Amino acid sequence: MPNGTDRTPLEIDTTLAGRAFAAIAVQEADAASGRRLWLPLLDGAERLGVLSLTLPRADDALRVRCNWLATLVAELLMTKGQYTDSYSLTRRRQPMSLAAEMQWQLLPPLTLSPRES
What we know:
Strands 1-2-3 form a three-stranded antiparallel beta sheet. It is elongated and about 50 Å long. The protein has helices at residues 16-23, 60-80, 86-91, 98-106, and strands at 27-31, 34-43, 46-55. With 117 residues, it is of the alpha+beta class.
């Protein structure tokens, strides 16, 4: 790619990253250098992506800190995403027309959560 960005789609349906995204739950596995965690990035109920971390060890206190980090990353993506389109352009497989871009911005969130009583 001219700008160094690889836009090849990733198959994630059968991966731990895909499971973290779909189930909205942290997934863990052994890695060569310790423990690998996949943490869902959420804005309320909307799924933004998955953060992958490889750690030398993973105890409960460190898992809590990793969840805080994932929350911070999601917050930064949402707040800084209002000032640039580079995040959304990175996620896309094809360019959008101006009309499609405007329609996309008017759509409701892709995910909904049940209302708590």
